[in-house]
Amino acid sequence: MSSSVVMGDQLIARIPVDERGDALIDVRQHAPELRWSTLYAEPTGAYSRLRTGVLQRLRKARNALPPGYDLLLVEGYRPYDVQQRYYEDHCSELLERYGPLEPDTLRGLASRHVSPPDVAPHVSGAAIDLVLSDAEGNALDMGTRINATPDESDGACYLDAPNITDFARGHRDILATAMATAGFAAYPPEWWHWSYGDRYWAFTLEVQYALYGPVHP
Ligand SMILES: C[C@@H](N)C(=O)N[C@H](C)C(=O)O
Ligand SMILES: [Zn+2]
């Protein structure tokens, strides 16, 4: 399992944002060729929104896939209050599992799986959770379910985890190559989470500024 800087690290929070101002658009309307899972679909349609610059790169990633594969998109934009709820719920789960924890320890552990709202890339419309699919849109074996926690998957949710089959490794590698080719940054604890333009992206690619800050509708 890789040791990596997590989203809640102060190294990430310190990265400045030079807001580029790209619109947050509904990808289902602007790019009907892209496939969406219904896993996180909700009536407001927030989940299928992304910054225009992110959509542009998603198209590039799709074009970089070998024949016979496609992307199945799961969750893009997440409103601040939803992120806050995910974060608080996950912190409660961890406290139940491990007992009392120092605030910094809790932030570090929690942000392997859910970002603290102040730095959350989904709240900026800069992150997409997705899986590799076949050409018909059937999700392929990625080694764990999407959104598996490090605890439940024995760390197999980490992008470079050794404890998955060669079959699943092949699928992760195809996804990772296409996403990296298009300019996305991976989040090492989550094989399904990729971002462009947020603070974690700037950290990974050693860019001085993030391009997208939080969007509050
Ligand atoms: C909750 C999971 N799908 C996710 O998006 N995690 C990252 C780290 C986040 O909350 O930004
Ligand atoms: Zn994500």
Labels describing this entry:
Muramoyl-pentapeptide Carboxypeptidase, domain 2, binds zinc ion, 7 strands, 32% helix, 5-stranded mixed β-sheet, two-stranded antiparallel ribbon, 217 residues, binds ligand LVM2DEV6, alpha+beta, globular
Could you please describe the fold and organization of this structure?
This protein has 217 residues and is of the alpha+beta class. The protein has a single domain, classed as Muramoyl-pentapeptide Carboxypeptidase, domain 2, CATH 3.30.1380.10. It has seven helices and seven strands. The strands form two sheets. A five-stranded mixed beta sheet has the order 2-4-5-7-6. It has a two-stranded antiparallel ribbon with strand order 1-3. The protein is globular and about 50 Å long. Zinc ion binds next to strand 5.
The H-and-E topology, N to C, reads as: HEHEEHEHHEHEEH
Number of strands: 7
**Can you summarize the main beta sheet?**
5 strands, mixed
Low-confidence stretches: none
CATH topology: Muramoyl-pentapeptide Carboxypeptidase, domain 2
* Mean pLDDT across all amino acids: 96
Q: Would you state the CATH class?
A: Alpha Beta
- With strands numbered from the N-terminus, the spatial order across the biggest sheet is 2-4-5-7-6
Bound molecules: the ligand C[C@@H](N)C(=O)N[C@H](C)C(=O)O, zinc ion
Q: Cα distance, first to last residue?
A: 38 Å
Keywords: Cell wall biogenesis/degradation, Dipeptidase, Hydrolase, Metal-binding, Metalloprotease, Protease, Zinc
Function: Catalyzes hydrolysis of the D-alanyl-D-alanine dipeptide.
Cofactor: Zn(2+)
Active site: 190
